Amino acid sequence: MKTHAQVVVIGGGVVGCSVLYHLSKAGWTDVVLVERKELTAGSTWHAAGGIHTLNGDPNVAALQKYTVELYQKIEETSGHQCGIHLPGELMLADTEERLDWLRMAHARGRYLGMDTEIITPAEAREIMPFIDESHFVGAMYDRHGGQVDPSGVTHAYAKAAQMAGAEVYLDTWAREITRHPDGSWDVVCNRGVINCEHMVNAGGLWAREVGHMIGLELPVLAMEHMYLLTDAIPEVQQFEQESEKGIPMIIDFGAEIYSREEQGGLLLGTYEKACVPWSPVETPWDFGLQLLDPDIDRISPSLEMAFTHFPIFNDARIRQVVNGPFTFAPDGNPLVGPVRGQPGQWVACGVMAGLAQGGGVGLALANWMIEGDPGFDIWGMDVARFGDWATPVYTNSKVQENYSRRFQIAFPNEELPAARPLQTSPIYGRLAQANAVWGVAFGLEYALWFQREGDPPVEEVTFKRSNAFDRVAAEVATVRESVGLMETTGFAKFEFTGSGARSWLSNLLANRIPGNGCLALAPMLNDNGKLIGDFTVATLGAERFMLVGSGVAERYYERYFDAHLPADGSVSLRTLGPELCGLSIAGPESRKTLQALTRADLDADAFPFLHIREMNVGMIPALVGRISYTGDLGYEFWVSASYQAALFDLLREAGEEHGMGLFGLRALDSLRLEKSFGAWASEYRPVYDPYEAGLGRFVKLDKDGFVGRDTSERVRAAGPARRLMTFVVEAEDADVLGDEPIWHRGEVIGWVTSGGYAHWSRASVALGYVPIERADADDGFEIEVLGVRRAAHPQREPLFDPTGARMRG
Ligand SMILES: Cc1cc2nc3c(=O)[nH]c(=O)nc-3n(C[C@H](O)[C@H](O)[C@H](O)COP(=O)(O)OP(=O)(O)OC[C@H]3O[C@@H](n4cnc5c(N)ncnc54)[C@H](O)[C@@H]3O)c2cc1C
Predict the structure, then answer these.
(1) Strand locations in 97-216, DSSP E?
(2) pLDDT in tens, 378-415
(3) CB 541 within 8 A of CB 469
């Protein structure tokens, strides 16, 4: 056994072996994998082996597509059979809403090059003759789905990696992980110690325990999962022999089951409502190639429905019931990436569909380790999407919610109730009293919109316009006509102090750091010139700065800052979190509202746009910035949590005579759309550069060096390959939700990043990227909304206040 390696991967399940394969394939061959028992001795060995490309996040779906296509390759390279059988996959909808969801998935798949088709129940029956089509209203057919042999795949990855120089140590249990003063890691195993620069936690069922070895609490939980196998069924055998592709993988959303052919019979798996976590506190180390006791009663409601939808099961004999555990993250997507504050530590765990996703996870992680960038848009899998609030009890609650809803429709405007409310700001009670409808982001509750007094504060879930529509329109009108008040605590806020802070930030951000008392919009780029942050930077003193950015990316930013802070201590970082609370007023009457509360001169000359200052608002010391994401005249207030309620009351009281109303995030979204303002995680993501995103004016190539400068110079000289555009869509009762394909003259050429209804401008708006050679076309665009192609008109300037006079006023 080696005593030193560049990388140690812990865990010989399908995910660890995929990571090992991708690292060695990319040229990192001084890599070893340690496996406690034998390969697949976690959840992998008893997996049903189903593979498919469907995922609610199209970027994760793209990586699943990569995985499906990879198996042929590793089989050829390793000479090890993967048991690939791709008869296609049939997703059956029993309601119109589910069919809408499939239409949306089908449309989203278009620009990812997915080969799916929406078909009728009768067509579905031709592909799978054992369904009772009367229960269904339609289906989506994916030619690429099917199944593989989980053990074959895992061994094929390992063998291919070994052929490239990687080593695999079986019966090697990593029991302790310690950090050397030189920054490297010692993985202490029962058979010796391996020192390494990088360590990957692919511990699967034990990922949580491996995390504990470095003091990390990963939000993963194992759930029991059952599938049953029937004896051979003559009709199934006959169809397998006679049909061209055989029986497809089936997902029946109504019955919440999946099914496929297995040894001439059928396999039937369920995601039951009455789900049960497995080993919620600690996974036993002596668990290995074992199964759990089956509990048919728990899954009987799903089975009953399945037997009605697929009558063939009624006469089949059940040969075996398999019950095995596998892990989930709170939102059901993998946890991948570097660990904050522990250089060289990486995770690849919480992979609930290891056969469908393992290849993509391995590829992204290997890219990230070698190139410093995953090479894809993997925000949906980044471990940084969870903060410290994702405790074990939170995870337990969320994972059960996710598991029990696995085949349920996920509506775009749906807010799931488990583990809530968790974090609330001091004005939570006041907003609740104002009949707020709540959302949650990064563990913190925020008001989405405000329901009419006396009506229940509940939003109907739908793919179309909901009962929020009129209320949001009213909130928008209040902002544009008088003055609105909203909470902004949910933003990520960071304070940088120290003698080196200014020059360090200047190197980190592409824009110039503003003068004292000023604000600037500042993109943060990586070495490849891609957008990894989008901040407002405030200079609060010679050695004091504040950065405000997207709340959901707080941990993502922290991880990046940590990794780049100078070692000499000249810059200190403090995450201000929900302890620094925010309020914002916006609208033509906002100056008058604030002026009544402060002696400070608020005239446009005295306190201009993009300025920030300490100010007493009534008795309350606040940091006040002249900026608003609404695109209107507005002010942002930052106060410590103990003052927020008093400030809220004060602003409301002062605003009353000006017609002040509360507004929530839905209204803010509507307001920013008519200004064509992009948003982090939608328009601004690490796969776009600032020039294509329309942020080129914030990139100052003439200032001293900054991260991404050289690439940006080249990109600007060459010109962007695509452009972020705003469209007005001829929509009816449904607006775009994001990820819809953009068509031009009959061809899919781009995708929507976000959109919705701009109430003030009375327009359905979509933002999205299109290739530069089409970006100047005036007509011929269409955007597919719920399966219908709608004419879309390019908007060359913001719908509202194109000159920006209102916000600068
Ligand atoms: C009943 C059932 C059906 C399923 N069906 C499907 C399906 O159809 N399609 C699909 O894609 N997925 C399916 N899955 C899920 C799939 O099994 C998992 O996604 C996948 O196995 C996860 O692989 P992994 O490598 O992350 O974890 P694991 O398979 O759990 O592997 C982790 C490995 O790490 C080793 N290990 C842990 N800690 C240490 C340590 N300290 N030192 C050394 N070694 C260590 C363990 O021994 C284990 O071998 C199913 C799961 C179940 C239970």
Answers:
(1) 116-119, 138-142, 146-147, 167-169, 174-179, 185-189, 192-201
(2) 889 999 999 999 999 999 999 999 999 998 888 999 99
(3) no
Q: Is 250 in the pocket of ligand 1 (CB under 6 A)?
A: no
The structure tokens listed for 328 are 């989930």
The stretch 594-599 carries a mean pLDDT of 97
Whether 15 is in the pocket of ligand 1, judged by its Cβ within 6 Å, is: yes
C-alpha dist (Å) from residue 671 to 359, 503, 527, 653, 759: 41, 35, 33, 24, 8
How far apart are the C-alpha atoms of 804 and 767, rounded to whole Å? 19
Ligand 1 atom having least distance to the Cα of 44: 21
Q: How far apart are CA 635 and CA 612, in angstroms?
A: 9
DSSP 260: E
Structure tokens at 208: 């949580």
Query: What's the rounded mean pLDDT across residues 326-350?
Result: 97
Nearest CA to ligand 1 atom 22: 354
Mean local confidence (pLDDT), 534-542: 98
For residues 694-709, average pLDDT: 95
Identify the three-state secondary structure at position 805: helix
pLDDT exceeds cutoff 90 at 281: yes
CA of 157 to the centre of ligand 1 (A): 14
Q: Residue 311: is it exposed, middle or buried by C-beta count within 10 angstroms (0-12/13-18/19+)?
A: exposed
Average pLDDT rounded to a whole number, residues 195-212: 98
Q: Which atom of ligand 1 is found nearest the CA of 38?
A: 49
| Phi, then psi, of 300 in degrees rounded to 5 | -65, -35
Residue 415 burial (C-beta neighbours within 10 Å; 0-12, 13-18, 19+): middle
Q: How far is the CA of 47 from the centre of ligand 1 (A)?
A: 8
- Report the distance separating Cα 555 and Cα 340, nearest Å: 8
Ligand 1 lined by 13 (C-beta under 6 Å)? yes
**From CA 392, how far away is CA 389, in angstroms rounded?**
9
Is the distance from CB of 213 to CB of 177 less than 8 angstroms?
yes
**Closest to 783 measured CA to CA, from 755, 741, 748:** 741
Q: Determine the average pLDDT of the residues in 532-538.
A: 97
User: Which tokens is 98 given?
Assistant: 């589910």
pTM value is: 0.96
Give the tokens for residue 67: 């995985």
The answer to whether the CB of 255 is under 6 A from ligand 1 is no
Count the Cβ atoms, other than its own, within 10 Å of residue 222. 25
Handedness of CA 333, 335, 336, 338 (dihedral sign): positive
pLDDT in tens, 662-684: 999 999 999 999 999 999 999 99
Q: Which of 534, 632, 522 is nearest to 584 (CA)?
A: 632
Asked if omega into 334 is within 30° of 0 (cis), the reply is: no
pLDDT of residue 213: 98
Confidence category of residue 107, pLDDT binned at 50, 70, 90: confident
pLDDT beyond 80 at 756: yes
